[in-house]
Design brief:
Elements lengths: L5 H14 L10 H7 L5 H8 L2 H8 L2 H9 L5 H19 L2 E4 L1 H18 L10 E5 L26 H8 L3 E6 L11 E2 L3 E2 L15 H8 L5 E6 L5 H6 L3 E4 L23 E6 L2 H13 L26 E4 L10 H16 L3 E4 L5 H12 L5 H10 L8 H7 L7 H25 L12 E5 L18 H5 L3 E9 L16 H8 L3 H4 L3 E8 L4 H14 L1
Parallel strand pairs: 2-3, 2-6, 9-10, 9-11
Antiparallel strand pairs: 1-3, 4-5, 6-8, 7-8, 7-12, 11-13, 12-13
Length: 546
């Protein structure tokens, strides 16, 4: 038996993905054609080259799509073909898929159509809806390689519980999407499938680690997808591509049989959540999953039924505005958007106060201590199995682990204790200290603030998780909400900038108004642990205001 080198495995994988695309949808020069036509936005370009009926289908929200399948405006097969076609083209431009199984999707869609024809009703609340999944969501017969060459052929035999529930509701799976090596980077790159680009600007990063999911949805090639988040991995790709999304607290949505790096690290665990082009779609599918009562199967899911916060949409809120973490300054467009949003909220009658965590530096330091507790041994060992080098986007984690030793069990217990202590400090700040800032002596309802210091970045960035990581450590619920876009005419380079650190200087230096013009700007609505419904309701209030 011939043993393939890591480069041969990688080449085979990338070629196999193209071969899984129907021949009539293959176009090796499509990316070049898009750029030559003057487009950098893949969504806009695909709208110009796809059939009108497919553009119509892929422009609908999930809730609109559900209604049109139910009333037979479109068949499930029509919908599946439209999304598979768009995904095939998007992948050839953006490199966003790691598993492609269109034939299986067509078969499932046909079964949905047969069910509707025979029974006169839909099979479930997601009947015929194409749903994309981040690579690590296990499906039988497909690998969950999590960016490693060594796991490229590690086919799974079980289906993740979340996938089981979605399929029971009528969902149609058709692709799994790219992730960075080990999923420990906010830039999606691996030796296995290469680099994933931003759907809104081909010159920029998709973010990570759910970058493939973000690019696919941002290109209009998915109406609903699922990503995971341990330090910003749902929120950063969503922000970079103007999407709506939810990072839930741990225990709200099942992670059972989802492949993971640093598996069973329970101090700051990864969570799974929806990413979409509609806030209502995010809320709808989250409620479906909570109502499915996965706590009867997965002991890590908390038995917390869905709570109705619709009345909150009519109330005046007390909002903490996070404008600067004190360590990493926001690029001009992000700073403007956050400040403008604060002003709009005040004009609408909501009380807005500025929040600042006095323990922010400890939050960031502790987060990275947890992530590097094994001195990157897992990454080093898994890469060594195939002989692949560590990709540049993950080297930041390697640098943070340099000269470190794997910590002892006693040191780990102490570190977990420090995480717990910081959670207490955060909760005290929220419940006690923010009351001192408000007129009514009332703790804030939520925090509204940036997700990243920029709207994206050119290739080869750094892992700077200042505005996302603290909420993973403190196990908050976070909703991603698009609020604005970069305007090159007003978002000029800050001439008075003074760097606080190397990272701060790095973020400042790559900002170019011409390159970033029209990039989406998102904020996150942060609520306390297990307050997903509240965060979604507040996001709806703010969206209506905008």
């Amino acid at each position: 038996m011939t043993i393939l080198s890591w480069t041969e495995i990688s080449e085979d994988k990338q070629e196999s993905l193209i071969q899984l695309i129907p021949e009539e949808w293959r176009n090796p020069s499509i990316k070049e054609e898009m750029i030559n036509a003057g487009f950098s936005n893949t969504y806009d370009y695909l709208d110009t080259i796809l059939p009108k009926d497919e553009v119509e289908i892929t422009s609908l929200t999930m809730l609109e799509l559900i209604a049109k399948i139910a009333n037979k405006t479109f068949t499930s097969l029509q919908v599946a073909k439209a999304y598979c076609h768009r995904a095939a083209l998007a992948h050839q431009i953006l490199n966003c898929c790691v598993e492609i199984f269109f034939d299986q999707a067509f078969d499932d869609a046909k079964r949905m159509d047969e069910y509707l024809a025979v029974n006169g009703k839909v099979s479930g609340p997601l009947h015929g809806v194409p749903i994309s999944l981040k690579d690590q969501v296990d499906l039988p017969g497909f690998a969950s390689s999590i960016g490693y060459v060594s796991l490229a052929e590690d086919k799974k035999t079980k289906m993740s519980l979340i996938a089981i529930k979605l399929k029971e509701m009528g969902a149609v799976f058709y692709v799994k999407t790219t992730v960075p090596t080990a999923m420990m980077s906010n830039e999606t790159e691996s030796n296995l499938v290469g680099y994933t680009y931003n759907s809104k600007n081909i010159n920029l990063s998709s973010g990570g680690s759910s970058g493939g999911e973000g690019s696919l949805i941002g290109a209009g090639a998915s109406v609903m997808g699922f990503g995971t988040d341990i330090g910003g991995s749902i929120r950063i790709p969503s922000a970079f591509q103007g999407l709506y999304a939810l990072k839930p607290s741990t225990g709200r949505i099942s992670y059972m049989d989802v492949t993971n790096s640093y598996c069973n690290q329970e101090s700051i665990p990864s969570v799974i959540g929806p990413m979409a082009r509609s806030l209502e779609d995010v809320e709808y599918i989250t409620k479906l999953l909570v109502d499915s009562e996965c706590w009867n199967i997965d002991p890590k899911v908390l038995p917390v039924p869905w709570k109705d916060f619709s009345s909150l949409k009519k109330e005046k809120l007390t909002i903490g505005l996070w404008k600067d973490d004190g360590l990493l300054q926001l690029q001009p467009p992000i700073r403007r958007a956050v400040e403008e949003l604060g002003e709009k909220l005040e004009k609408a009658g909501h009380e807005v106060v500025t929040v600042q965590f006095p323990f922010q530096n400890k939050l960031i330091q502790t987060l990275f201590e947890v992530f590097t507790a094994d001195a990157a041994k897992e990454i080093i060992d898994e890469c060594a199995r195939s002989g692949e080098p560590v990709v540049s986007s993950v080297k930041n984690l390697m640098i943070a682990s340099k000269d470190k030793e794997i910590i002892s069990s006693e040191e780990w217990w102490n570190l977990c204790g420090r995480v717990y202590k910081l959670k207490q400090e955060f909760l005290n700040y929220w419940n006690v200290e923010t009351k001192k800032l408000t007129k009514a002596d009332k703790a804030i309802d939520c925090i509204v603030g940036p997700i990243y210091a920029s709207t994206s970045y050119p290739r080869k960035s750094r892992n700077v998780l200042n505005y996302t990581g603290p909420y993973n450590l403190c196990d908050c619920s976070c909703v991603v909400l698009p609020v604005s876009q970069v305007d090159a005419s007003i978002d000029k380079v800050d001439e008075n900038f003074q760097a606080r650190s190397d990272d701060d200087q790095f973020v400042h230096d790559f900002y170019d108004p011409k390159i970033f013009d029209k990039m989406p700007i998102c904020v996150q609505i942060v609520t306390k642990k297990l307050e997903e419904e509240k965060g979604l309701a507040i996001a709806s209030t703010i969206k209506d205001l905008l």
